[in-house]
Amino acid sequence: MMKLAELIEQNIEELAILDSLDAGKLLSVGKSTDIPGAAELLRYYAGAADKIHGQVLKMSRPLQAYTLMEPIGVVGHIIPWNFPTSLFFTKVSPALAAGCTMVVKPAEQTPLSALYYAHLAKLAGVPDGVLNVVTGFGHTAGAAISHHMDIDMVSFTGSTEVGREIMKAAASSNLKHVSLELGGKSPLIVFDDADVDLASDIALLGFTFNKGEVCAASTRLYVQEGIYDEFEKKLVEKAKALLIGDPFDPQVRYGPQVDKVQFEKILSYIEHGKREGATLLTGGKPIGDKGYYIQPTIFTNVKENMMMVKDEIFGPVVGLMKFKSVEEAIERANESKYGLAAGIMTKDLNVANTVSRSVRAGSVWINCYFGIDNDCPFGGYKMSGFGKDFGLDALHKLKGISSTIHAR
Ligand code: NAD
Fold first, then answer.
1. Reported ipTM exceeds the 0.95 cut
2. Are 315 and 269 in contact (CB under 8 A)?
3. Per the domain annotation, does 228 fall within a domain?
């Protein structure tokens, strides 16, 4: 794993180019974050690999017993296209450390870096058969994994709809373990005492980072009435000023959507939002006639029962809503079938504590956003799934089978 991390670092430029070509990701972000982050994650789990312990159990009779932690077996990793490298290593690193063998199926839109990683793993000395990459479509290659009788666990990241299919396949085949990291529609709550400049920067990042194709994107934006007007003005100005363009240009902050399907889906949600009566503050249109670019789009006058507020759009579209009290913010933030992440902007520690404990979200970020890190378990509540990635929690789920051994 250490050697693989080294090889990744020696090939950062080439790997980042592959993800940019496949997914339209910013090359600058791939080079500075996604690819080096993969090497760091491998090292994090490599360091944990020899610290996996069972327990000595206290028996009521004069016997000895202990538990033995064993790899869960063969793991099928099925991942989406929005972070081809990060998600590959989010799955593979703890599985290697736990001693599992695995089959990884990247998304059909973004297979290139996964194939390169399989090649690097071989060069690093990972034994044949341990880390296998199978490309293909979901209904064929993906379904073959989720129905397979010799696969012991499917660790899936993707949409809630496909997560449901995976659970059904697991139930109707060999009752394999399932871990699901699914969609989201995360709230960002901005209170009156927040620094409006910082809050509007974070709100912009929250729905435009990776052109909005982020599971934890903050796409329901609740702003307290005292600063609402000032906040709205700043956010709209900043969205209009975002430098949009070729993802290979180091100055550019925002690139094209992954493909035509996603591009059309986002535009149809925008049209639906207008028909539902939401007011478009900025954006809402494609940019140019080359590439699948969509303007960062901000709606106001939106309500929780509108489709554009209920559904995960997975694009650069945010709904701006006004609230009065802390209680109202909590209630409305929780009015979602998803529970992946939430953000809170306030200087008041009591408010931050109360809201972070009351919002049903797997990750809550206070005065920051996208605080995803190697040691921090990440995963949702409600229809955002179950079973954490990252941290030692991810390792535990993969060495989850513990034999209990008794001896006289
Ligand atoms: P998707 O569910 O359509 O596809 C994800 C993967 O599942 C792909 O590899 C696909 O080929 C495969 N697949 C599709 N149908 C399948 C089937 N019937 N059986 C087995 N595999 C199948 O998702 P997507 O459009 O690629 O990605 C976007 C979704 O991923 C969003 O909902 C987003 O929120 C979610 N996501 C979640 C997280 C998280 O950590 N919670 C992270 C990134 C993305």
1. yes
2. yes
3. yes
